[in-house]
User: What shape does this take?
Amino acid sequence: MLDSPLSNYFRLTERQILILKKFGLQIVRDLLWHFPVRYEGFAGRKAVADLVAGERASVHGRVIKTEAKKTFRKKISLAQTLISDGTGSLKIVWFNQPYMVNILKPNTDYTFTGTIKRDKNGLSMMNPVFEAGEITANESGILVPIYPETRGLTSRWLRFAIKRILDHLEVGLPSGSPTSLKDSIPEEILKKYNLPSLKSAIKEIHFPRNLKWAEAARKRFAFEEIFIIQLIRQAWRKKRDEHPSYQIAIEPEKIKDFVKAFPFELTGAQKRASEHILEDLGRAKPMSRLLEGDVGSGKTAVAAVASFAAVQNNFQVAYMAPTEVLARQHFEEFIRRFKQLNIKIGLATSSEFLKYPSKAFAGKPTHIARAPLLKWLASGEIQILIGTHSLIQEKIKFKKLALVIVDEQHRFGINQRLKLTQKGHEENLPAGGQIPHLLSMTATPIPRTLALTIYGDLDLTLLDEMPAGRKKIITEIIAPEKRKHAYEHVRKKISFGRQAYVLCPRIESEEVRLLREVGLPEMRAVKKEYKTLSENIFPEFKVAMLHGKLKPKEKEKIMKEFREGKIQLLVATSVIEVGVDVPNATIILIEGAERFGLAQLHQLRGRVMRSEHQPYCFLFTESNSQKTKARLQALLEAKSGFELAEYDLELRGPGELTGQKQWGISDVGMEALKNIKMVEAAREEARKIIEANSIQKYPELARRVSAQSASLHFE
Ligand code: ADP
Ligand code: MG
Assistant: This one.
């Protein structure tokens, strides 16, 4: 039953099927796992004639008429509705919500819940919650689940449908039959952490006896989600650990000399990270490490140290970046780091192959054809190969690849990362076959609990210190009337030779439509902003536009011109490449700042902190809410992106945690991340099962894990 299409159980129109599908609701199981966002407290149902002043009650009645008014003295706007249920009529009043008049349709039935008041005109109900139609009370008639709604899919229908399925499950299904609910969490774990069984939890999450039961149910599903992710990640790790890697002999003196040639001193964090990594490389067991550090914290230098150790031992290194711009940037930085050492470095992207050094031009890289590049890689002559995902191609074969570095690793699919770490054994890695060490890097600041979950297969190292000598960024929240001021400041800085970014929230047509519907200010669209800035505000400067709809070639061209200083002002969505290093860009203006997560804003401003010039970040917001202001204020005070990510998690609202979707964690799962104890428990229980290799003892768990990890492979 759980796997049959909803249309087997409900009479659905084509349109309804489409809407349900849009919400990922196709089979019965989907519907049961579509959890309410909250519960509304509906009180005991009463007839109008029986109402008493001072009590809270639910009344089911028909709307006779509605009108908008202003109070006589204070001019407060009111919406008034008169309803009748056959036993009498009742006045319903909303303060400051005049639009209620448009929402409530005359001659239609609703259930209203609120407190009854008495004034000189009789009884009335103030600011009630309400729902179309009649609320069918659950067992105790108190908590009614409210689901995420969209047009054409109401909470009311969802309640009806879910109730019906639950009733079905309740009767007539012999336990153990293939259609009954099977719990994926082992019983001893449920007991140990006092979690409700699946059967009870699924009932209580939809129709809870009281909020305590609802919470326990949510907690259970949250645990389950984190537990399964942990199992998948740790299984991968175990698979990696079953293979030996290349033992890289570390010669501390040589490494010291290598680092001494840098034009700067490594930060304490860079030193510590390098030590961790070198220690890992010195073992015959594959390293699986994630280096997490804010933009500009100097991850490339650490990557260079690790690469140096590998090439010293006559091994090869593959360094993969998500874009051509970044790959090229790393190539150039590596040339600077390795130039005295006569180490051969290659660059491979989809548009070019370069090799350094070249015979023809001493000290400069030259273009080469694909064939010699492949040849030199296979012979081990090219020791470090830097590039984009083109490194994954099967044709690219190394002689002795011992270290794989993946920059901005979240920008790659898991499958792509796997392919690179199994280089040379694309088809099937033989048991006991040697695999390279893996150094993953990311600048995405995420809370610790999230990192422990989604990177459950990696050891973490934080780069939590910025290179000395950087100017501290000046971040300001700009009130609308000060906008001109901010522009003048930008004009001045650009006249002195600096460059600036203007960031606009991403536009997705669906989102724009929804915003308009709920009456929020429309976001400043890139195109509109570009037009205003280039024509009216900064006609004297070269302004360009960068967004996701541009072709890759156009994007590269614009970024190149920006890097070369030919473009002074770049209007962009957040597509501007993570990690792009344009030191001369020292100002970033962010429109609709309230629409970004704090950690994301922090990352964005990191783009302008790459030189000795004073950097600025101006935040524009059209929201007047105190909450928004307090939230943005945190940016003025926080010390690191990780701190902000924790803050985001705490204050989590829609979209506040950057890229939640990308991590594939549900809303319920995100709740678990606020609870480090729960995350650690899930991690520990997963570890025990993986270590004992005992997952097959739990068939339902094994099924969930393999289904989910298959879908991850194709992400
Ligand atoms: P990330 O990749 O972590 O965002 P990068 O590796 O691109 O940062 O480094 C940013 C800039 O800082 C580069 O120009 C790099 O040369 C420089 N840099 C790195 N480490 C240091 C340091 N310890 N002191 C001064 N500058 C540094
Ligand atoms: Mg980087």
